[in-house]
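Fill in residues.
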């Protein structure tokens, strides 16, 4: 993408609540005040989400006068709050499924997408999946999940890893809410797998077979090689800081979920 002098002015004076018209289309713009890492995470998140078969807006990272801006291609969607689904933030997966059904979305397919989002957040250490950071796109009467705001990926330095609050009755409780995604109770995920539809287990197995730590490392290399930071004077290379540490943390989380998965298989001989 090439930015013109006029684009630079628009970017520097962007409006947050509406798309901004740049020379090659409409973009949501956000300034990344703290560090370029957040912008880099957005680019990585874009690639990871695509590979996860989750819809997410295409984005570019621009540096102007030492400030970093994310340009996110405008997509028309509704977030959970605007759909009246803000109670989803404390909902269990089961409850989410019921809500989707009530609102006449194609709930089964959407539910698969929610499970993918859950795996995405878990594996890539996303600590900011609040209900304003995903939404629903409807095209030709079909509803799809859309995920965005990948700033807080790789936020593994937390003492909690797997989701869901299990009190003996409500196995699925809070599996997606932010606080509880960060809950280090491996057996709760096992509970979920054991008590939910087997289709979710097969879906997870499919993803875990692909997303080995070696594959993840390959993808990070690819993101570095296929992305740039756009500046007024041309593009500069994208370098992922702390890559070794990110891969190490990924490997830890991956092994955790694999252990959990194997326990489930152990309890259910039907799954190989
Ligand atoms: N590509 C896009 N197309 C349409 N709307 C978008 C796009 N990107 C962001 N938005 C809208 O802007 C809001 C804020 O974007 P985002 O979550 O990336 O920024 P944020 O600074 O983290 O905001 P928040 O603190 O609200 O999470 C989103 O909830 C969404 O409604
Ligand atoms: Mg956000």
């Amino acid at each position: 993408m090439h930015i013109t002098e006029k684009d630079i002015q628009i970017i520097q004076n962007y409006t947050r609540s509406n798309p901004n018209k740049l020379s090659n289309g409409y973009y949501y713009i956000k300034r990344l005040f703290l560090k370029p890492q957040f912008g880099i995470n957005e680019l990585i998140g874009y690639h990871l989400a695509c590979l996860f078969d989750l819809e997410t807006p295409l984005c570019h990272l621009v540096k102007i006068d030492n400030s970093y801006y994310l340009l996110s291609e405008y997509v028309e969607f509704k977030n959970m709050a605007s759909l009246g689904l803000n109670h989803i933030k404390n909902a269990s997966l089961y409850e989410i499924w019921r809500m989707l059904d009530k609102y006449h979305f194609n709930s089964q397919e959407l539910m698969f997408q929610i499970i993918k989002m859950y795996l995405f957040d878990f594996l890539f250490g996303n600590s900011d999946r609040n209900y304003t950071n995903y939404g629903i796109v409807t095209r030709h009467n079909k509803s799809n999940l859309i995920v965005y705001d990948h700033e807080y990926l790789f936020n593994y330095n937390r003492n909690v890893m797997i989701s869901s609050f299990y009190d003996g009755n409500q196995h699925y409780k809070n599996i997606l809410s932010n606080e509880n995604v960060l809950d280090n109770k491996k057996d709760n995920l096992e509970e979920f797998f054991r008590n939910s539809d087997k289709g979710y287990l097969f879906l997870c197995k499919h993803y875990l077979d692909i997303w080995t730590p070696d594959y993840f490392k390959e993808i990070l290399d690819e993101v570095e090689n296929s992305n740039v930071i756009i500046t007024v004077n041309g593009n500069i290379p994208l370098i992922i800081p702390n890559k070794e540490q990110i891969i190490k943390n990924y490997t830890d989380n991956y092994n955790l979920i694999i252990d959990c998965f194997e326990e489930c298989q152990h309890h259910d001989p039907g799954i190989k």
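Residues 28, 30, 57, 72-75, 79, 132-133, 148-149 surround adenosine-5'-triphosphate (ligand 1) (CB under 6 Å).
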